[in-house]
Task: structure prediction
Amino acid sequence: MDEELRSLTERLRTEAGASAVYDRLVVTEDPDALADALTEPGQPLWARELTAFKLGLAGDRRAFESLVLFLNHRDPQRCASAAYALARLDDPRTARAAAALATNELRVAYALHPIRLLTELRAPESVPALITTLERRLRPHDPYRRVALACVDGLGSLADARARPVLTEALAHPALAEAAVGALGRIPRQR
Result:
């Protein structure tokens, strides 16, 4: 069993309590049965998360919309699980959705996992979305330093020269300066 799936099932076991539905969903490998459970009315949140995660790992794109909703959830564990499954889903819509979530100022408190997903995907949308999000975090007294730091780290990992100006600006922010130096060091010098 995938380590992330094991962690998810342990976490959801507590939410599910002594549920026969939980026991059935954990062992079910049939994608149609999982997809039916995902869309069945009245399913608890833990059941939707479990089925979407398993479908995502299996590369079944019927999980996409549910996983994107979980990527934007207030619970960081649900966001992390959704990001993991989305990275393995191989759906061409994933980067666009993650970029929209990462750059949505109304949901910036939940942008950490979309940013990390964009970094992992290395999609064309990744660098512009991380630059946009980081530029907004460089305002005075911005409370989302973890989001800003994830952008700096992501831009360093992506090593794209378009990030040089915003990373240079991040040097002026003490909480980001060390990471920005490292990120700038990973970007190849232009000749």
